[in-house]
């Protein structure tokens, strides 16, 4: 039975929620391996819409075990809100938190805002969820793991030491006032710790057991390749390894355990936050796509920046993730335009550049070179659903030509195509998790 990773190939918000939900409905175990409340998955489940920030997408399925992996930084308050929302909708999923996952605390939020402000032009436009400071603490060994968080005396002892240090940094370095006393934070957060304690268990052992028992295991990425702390466009990304390698370190499995790595590709580019986007559309076409696709951040509500599809990014994503398959999203959203463009490569100081350069400075100097494609017509909700039922051949021929061109250029086969928000709006070319 396969162990599969689903990653975003672009700047996050590729529509991973929908794709992961599709696979999660067939999986035995779903593991989130990176990030925290910065992520936002919107999942349409029947008549209901759910917004997940921490929770793995398998939470909507009774038979699925959902793991918050050790690679995550978890905001306990937000996580409890998500769990409570599901409980009040009558959904009681099986959730397990890694004792090695780190806790995001109030001073992380304050530092996130303060650091962004001081960075000026270098600011990444973070979600202000305390992600960077929490991962910085993890790397500096100033962090608090869940195993420590749920033991009151250890949490208290570490918080006492950390609170003093953070207070000095916030007030002394950033000249800001931090309102939470150690006692207040302890009281509020030890309550969260108590409530979350029953969810904490050794997830590494559970994942290995599932793999040994040949269960269908899905590793769910958050954000996208270009936001990866090592492989993304530093410093305009996030603070974790969002790429497929992060699935190993963020869950406790080795690379040899992974059978499939599926890259989610939105058929155009979008991103929130700062940094260069060579194919950015600051015109009516960009507005058309943004409005049609409802392209506003799930976590922050910010309007997403829109651009044409960028092949150098996808070629790069195929390499650094070791992609075995592509899952295309938003084929319906991109419909209704007469002509489309795809950036095939960049021109950078008279050089042809076919894969994302190392730094944002080089990328800023790149000019996109485009190939034009005829657009395809909008089939309407019923028409797309009908096409999904009939299969690949029912897609408009222009759409097929566009997708096949991308797949060929990237050198990775198409596994799945999404033509709408629901699970039923999906065309499957290769089924990695066949139903039992
Ligand atoms: P942070 O992860 O909140 O520190 O934000 C760092 C950068 O990553 C910012 O440009 C964010 O907009 C972006 N980012 C973080 N999480 C997501 C996500 O889930 N989708 C899209 N962009 C994200």
Commentary on this structure:
The chain is of the alpha/beta class. It folds into two domains: 3-86 and 203-428, Alpha-Beta Complex (Adenylosuccinate Synthetase, Chain A, domain 3); 102-199, Adenylosuccinate Synthetase, subunit A, domain 2 (Orthogonal Bundle), CATH 1.10.300.10. It has 14 helices and 19 strands. The chain has a nine-stranded mixed β-sheet, with helices on both faces. Strands 13, 15, 16 and 17 form a four-stranded mixed β-sheet that branches. Strand 15 and strand 16 (351-353) form a beta hairpin. Helix 3 crosses helix 4, helix 3 runs parallel beside helix 6 and helix 6 crosses helix 7 (182-196). The longest helix has 22 residues, at 152-173. The mean pLDDT is 95. The structure holds inosinic acid (IMP). Inosinic acid binds at residues 12-13, 38-40, 124-127, 129, 131-132, 222-223, 227, 237-239, 272-273. Inosinic acid (IMP) is lined by residues 12-13, 38-40, 124-127, 129, 131-132, 222-223, 227, 237-239, 272-273.
Q: Give start-end ranges of low-pLDDT stretches.
A: none
Outline type: globular
Helix content estimate: 25-40%
Largest sheet at a glance? Answer: 9 strands, mixed
Going across the biggest sheet, name each strand in turn.
Answer: 7-5-2-9-1-10-14-18-19
> Which ions and ligands are bound to the chains?
inosinic acid
How many H/I helices? 14
Give me the secondary-structure topology.
Layout: E1 3-8, H1 16-24, E2 29-32, E3 41-45, E4 48-52, E5 65-68, E6 73-74, H2 76-88, E7 94-97, E8 102-103, H3 106-119, H4 131-139, H5 146-149, H6 152-173, H7 182-196, H8 203-212, E9 217-220, H9 244-249, E10 260-266, E11 269-271, H10 284-293, E12 305-307, E13 309-310, H11 311-321, E14 325-329, E15 339-348, E16 351-353, H12 360-364, E17 367-374, H13 380-390, H14 397-410, E18 414-418, E19 426-428
Parallel strand pairs: 1-9, 1-10, 2-5, 2-9, 5-7, 6-8, 10-14, 13-15, 14-18
Antiparallel strand pairs: 3-4, 11-12, 15-16, 15-17, 18-19
Bound molecules: inosinic acid.
